Amino acid sequence: MDILLDxxxxxxxxxxTLFLEFENGEKRVFDMTPLMDKKPFVQLKGxxxxxxxxxxxxxxxxxxxxxxxxxxxxxxSLPV
Length: 80
Known about the structure:
β2 and β3 form a beta hairpin. This protein has one helix spanning about 70-75, and strands spanning about 5-10, 15-20, 25-30, 55, 60, 65-70, 80. Helices cover about 10% and strands about 35% of the residues. It has a four-stranded antiparallel sheet. A three-stranded antiparallel sheet has the order 4-5-6. The two termini are about 15 Å apart. It has one helix and seven strands; from the N terminus they run ββββββαβ. The protein is mainly beta.
């Protein structure tokens, strides 16, 4: 991806998928499963906090100052 796109909406599901909408209107799905055993995301594993994801400053964030870069979300997600 050559242009950095901000996330404008997120819907986090209990199966560790994120349904994302980017500022260009594109909708994509990102599977967090491979990251859930790694810091800092391990804190969210098995916790209802995972579904509390929100958008702040163009990326996805969780309580506890946990976030993930928007370019990672875009590059590793699939179109819906």
